[in-house]
Hints:
This protein is α+β, with helices and mostly antiparallel strands.
Amino acid sequence: MSRTSTTTAVGALTLRPLDPLHDAELLHGWLTHPKSAFWMMQDARLVDVERAYMELAADEHQQAHLGLHDGVPAFLMERYDPAHRELVGLYEPEPGDVGMHFLVAPTDRPVHGFTRAVITAVMAELFADPATRRVVVEPDVTNTAVHALNAAVGFVPEREIQKPEKKALLSFCTREQFEEAVSA
């Protein structure tokens, strides 16, 4: 099932479940692009992307969605349960915590405000589930662009953590913090 949120600045943003086999070639191009370096898949082969997203699709604790901008693939959202994936042992999860990753497709023709509209739509989608109390993210500490976007939608950094693949900035956003940030 997909939901659509429309923003007057950029158009319709829709999320649909990712089809690992059908969407793998598209994702491969995005994930291996130099602008996607923080996803650490620069050297991935198509089969690696297919395998990674097949594994994700088979995992009850994770879901991936392809985001469409006016019907055209434009971003990726991953949702995960931090009590079972990504952050196990790195913080004490609370009931209603949901982990999130997002990636905007690399483009030579950026649209002003697009990435902010995407993260806002992603957060609205996550909070559309009444069970979601707080969204958790763990971007690379050096990814200052995403830290600014996270702050714009209400995330508050808690602390740096060491994950196996990176030093990350553990940050949280409650429903109330999100609503306050986007209504300002």
